[in-house]
Amino acid sequence: MKFDKFFELAKKAGITDCEISISTSYSLEFSLFHGEIDNYTSSSSSSYLARGIYNGKMGSIGSDVYDKNSAEKFVKAIVENASVIENEDPVFIFKGSEKYHKINTFNKELEKIPVELKLEKLYELEKKIKEQDKRVIEVETVGYSESKSSSTIYNSHGLKLVQKNNFYVYYGGAVAKEGEQVKTGFDIAFGNDYSKFDVDELAKSIVKETTSKLGGFQCDSSTYKAVLSQDVVKAFMGAYISSAIAESVQKKSSLFVDKLNQKVASRKVTIEDMPLAKTVFAKSFDDEGVATKNLPIIKNGILVNYLYNLTTAAIDGVESNGHGAVGGSKVDTTTWYPVMKPGKKSLEELFKEVGNGVYITEVSGLHAGLNSRSGNFSLQSTGFMIENGKVTHGLDIITVSGNLVDLFNSIIEVGNDSKEFASGMKCPSVLIKKINVSGK
Amino acid sequence: MISKKLAIDVLNEMLATGADYAEIFAENSRGYGVSLENGKVNSSSTGITFGAGLRLLKDNRCVYGYTSDVSRKGLMELANSLNKSFKGERLITVSKLEMIRSKNRNPILHSYEDIPLKEKIDLIREGTDEIQSMNDPRIVRYVGSFACNHKSVTVFNSKGKWFHRDTEFARMAYSIVAADENGMETSFEGPGCQMDISYFKDKAKPRKVARKAAETALMMLTAKECPSGKMPVVIGNGWGGVLFHEACGHPLEASAVSRGLSCFAGKEGEMIASPIVTAVDDSTIPNEWGSIDIDDEGNLGEKRVLIKDGKLVNFMIDDFNGRRMGRKGNGSCRRQNYKYCPTSRMSNTYIDNGKSTLEEIIAATKLGLYAVGFAGGSVDPTTGEFNFGCSEAYIIRDGKVCEPVKGATLIGKGEEILKKIDMVGNDLALAQGMCGAASGSIRTNVGQPTLRVSEITVGGRGGELK
User: Fold this and answer.
1) Has residue B352 been placed in a domain?
2) What CATH number did the domain enclosing B92 receive?
3) Using the beta-carbon criterion (under 8 Å), do B64 and A46 form an inter-chain contact?
4) For chain A: N or C, fewer Cβ within 10 A?
5) Cβ neighbours of residue A311 closer than 8 Å, sequence gap 6 or more
6) Residues B33, B61: one domain?
């Protein structure tokens, strides 16, 4: 096969175990501006990542191309890179798990739908966004993209694993104006079952995202009882569960150091990583070839598992739970599809329970305003006032601030309105005791 | 990797159905990165970026495709599949390609590829040794890293032009995690250049950079929570320029302006900033992180004055977006690599020097915030709303810099902030960053002298400023 030469040369060079992972992807994307296709992109690309153990250390090389000279080049780079590693952490090329769950992330039907139909829906989307509300002065963009990809792992232990997936995304952004106030909003719909795409629903949601921000003003700086929307919960949950990554815990730079089997959130909170759930994000093995499984991270407020790859698992003397993410010679750790278990109350019931407070619907600037190590955050936000159990007016130019640990411990109620995000997460709205808001 | 003969054939295939412009962007780049965690090398990796992007334009429509198969068959097939987007008669035939010559302001004198790995590692180790020598138990994790890239790009276009661009750039970075019984803080310093290794030996010295990062994280451990509310903010030089980058730089890119999706669209010639503000995007500064001699459309690098004494005078424009504006590109067309369709982007973008000294600005401020370090930020170019987080900040009381504060976020609207700048210092400095947008993550410098904004909304957890 294509990579025999690589495995052969690697062995000769003294590389004891080695592996090559191949990702191939085909994608198509087009967008409209003022009723015309203004951007059309199609691509086919491959990438190769070769890793190998030399004198007990891992070396690696990544490349977009594998040609007749690559086997030699790859082996040379692995030896060179492994030779300078000083870290003593154990490294592995994996022999394989006993069993891999079957997953279905490839939908043949998606490919059969003609591009013309997909484009027609896009024209429809643009028209419907414009028509719905007079305050919408511009459709910033509407677009469609689809991608088909496969990832394959071959290694010197004879392991061969293949995983394929495909999905589509429709997206749109609008600009709305009222008086001198201008606001933008954006939303997307995705999946790999095209028959489920509802153009009316997406158009409605984009317009709502945009126009609902109009008419807002700053509230007084104070501490408020609050409902956080699913988008906001997603942002905070992503940052909080990254604390469960074993490497950060081992290196004492996580909020969850010495917290296993202890309370890290209110008892209303259960978060599970679910790579085997029936979604487009499903994965049967991680980047190291370890079989994945659904794994609770926080159960009724108690931290029940850390997230491991082969190296960090060996350090703690446990088995990897399939969270390895390979980018180079060093293996990182990631989550696949974290899900917060929904509660029983509707969003309206949450508002009622707040009485007077705020409904925070968006936080931005997380890369700068949230320190996932200390848990402190101070973020630009948008939202609404809640008065007498009902949403009244919008809030403009406010920040919310607090600490992740406090926030997760102050969750009083979890909503029943779970939403799945294109970043591979699912969560409902929540009600929290208090959040600091800076406004006037 | 692509001969001129093959390029002409591919361009003509792209143009067969009526495109009015076609371009091939071929790339063969190599990168190397190493990192040392707590003093030990824990990662060393090589990367090869190889492939070609084909772009076809017709009026205001853009068609883009890329492939890592740059054989005749691979490129011709891609060209053929892309030209199906247009259904017209051929307008242009390319018969010859002439080379565009550009100044080489960032020559590769001593390639990083010729330097042994050990020398690169030793360089970073100087910094990690410095941190170790501080022997402070509060420093729980420190990572030093070094990354260098050789980017080799050849562009052919239907104007009958071609050029080749070889660039090398490198960046060193130190990130620190410090913790005590009260909490945990992080800091980051990452100088970079388009220059050989002498930059790190003579200018951005590893010991100095690493110590600065460590001291910032330790100092922030002692910081109190930042107060919130509206207050005067003195923004430090260098990294402080991220405010201008986010809040004004992005809305001045043709990608937003040409579609009327910028808060500055249609305002050329108007006063959009305080009269003491002059802002520049200059891709011609030798060896600087964001400099380019020639852009992806073959337009030469320029010094573009964007705002002159408060008046909006220019934008960053690429040829394609320039079509909607009736303007030609001014050397601003950039992309991360062949996998991205290029668009108008910043290079080295800064607010120019004013007359005040740092001391005068601080002394003139009775009660406010002095924001020195920033962790980054983001902006909505349509509304101009921005946010950015401070990684190092102090309270100014009675004209003196006092206690450090943490967790400060500055938010507001670019167009409002620009008008509220009431003092501009004379200590212009540039700082290196990576800017992410539609055409990927690219090298850009931000920069400014110390300046004061009379009022910004500050978010923080420390209650009212007293």
Assistant:
1) yes
2) 3.30.2290.10
3) no
4) N
5) A89, A90, A91, A92, A331
6) yes
Give contacts of B2 with chain A, Cβ < 8 Å: none
On whether ipTM exceeds 0.90, the answer is no
Domain that holds residue B413: 224-459
B266 touches chain A (CB under 8 A): no
How does pLDDT run across B11-54, given as a tens digit for each residue?
Answer: 999 999 999 999 999 999 999 999 999 999 999 999 999 999 99
- A34 and A159 fall within a common domain: yes
What are the chain B neighbours of A371 within 8 Å (beta carbons)? 184-186, 407
CB pairs under 8 A between A and B: 232
| CA separation for the pair A155, A17 (Å, rounded) | 8
Structural domain range at position A40: 4-209
Q: Which residues contact A431 (CB under 8 A, 6 or more apart)?
A: A225, A226, A227, A228, A350, A353, A354, A411, A412, A413, A414, A415
Query: In degrees rounded to 5, what are phi and psi of residue A83?
Result: -65, -25
**B82 and A42: CB-CB below 8 Å?**
yes
Q: How many domains does chain A have?
A: 3
| Closest chain B residue to the Cα of A41, Cα to Cα | B64
What is d(CA A10, CA A75) in angstroms, rounded to the nearest whole number?
6
Whole-angstrom distance, CA of residue B113 vs CA of residue A345: 61
Last residue of a domain, one of B187, B204, B221: B221
Q: B424 - beta bridge partners? A: B451
**Cα-based distances in Å from B68 to A46, B1, B370:** 7, 12, 48
pLDDT digit string (tens) for B156-191?
Answer: 999 999 999 999 999 999 999 999 887 788 899 999
CB B332 within 8 A of CB B316: yes
Nearest to A171 by CA among A191, A193, A187: A187
